[in-house]
């Protein structure tokens, strides 16, 4: 699975779009992700995660 983390842009064909870091992490934990595309403002997503 290829995941595309972006809250605004549409994912390319063949990619699964996620809008939050939490969604991306959940998919990464599935061990089925082969590629990931991260939004250029990635720090905004991960700074919003509670530790």
Describe the secondary structure blueprint for this structure.
Elements: E1 2-5, E2 16-18, H1 21-28, E3 35-38, H2 42-47
Parallel strand pairs: 1-2, 1-3
Q: How would you concisely characterize the structure shown here?
A:
The chain has helices spanning 21-28, 42-47, and strands spanning 2-5, 16-18, 35-38. With 51 residues, the chain is α/β, with parallel strands linked by helices. It has one domain.
Describe the fold and architecture.
With 51 residues, this protein is α/β, with parallel strands linked by helices. It has one domain. A three-stranded parallel β-sheet has the order 2-1-3, covered by helices on one side. The radius of gyration is 10 Å and the shape is globular.
Low-confidence spans: pLDDT under 50, at least 5 residues? none
User: What is the makeup of the main sheet?
Assistant: 3 strands, parallel
- Overall, the morphology is globular
Instruction: Please write the string of helix (H) and strand (E) elements.
Output: EEHEH
- Derived from helix and strand composition plus strand pairing, the structural class reads alpha/beta
Distance between the termini: 26 Å
Keyword list:
single chain; 51 residues; alpha/beta; 3-stranded parallel sheet; globular
């Amino acid at each position: 699975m290829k995941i595309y983390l972006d809250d605004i842009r549409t994912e390319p064909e063949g990619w699964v779009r996620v809008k939050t870091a939490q969604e991306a992490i959940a998919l990464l934990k599935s061990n089925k992700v082969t590629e990931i595309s991260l939004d250029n403002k990635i720090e905004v997503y991960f700074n919003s995660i509670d530790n």
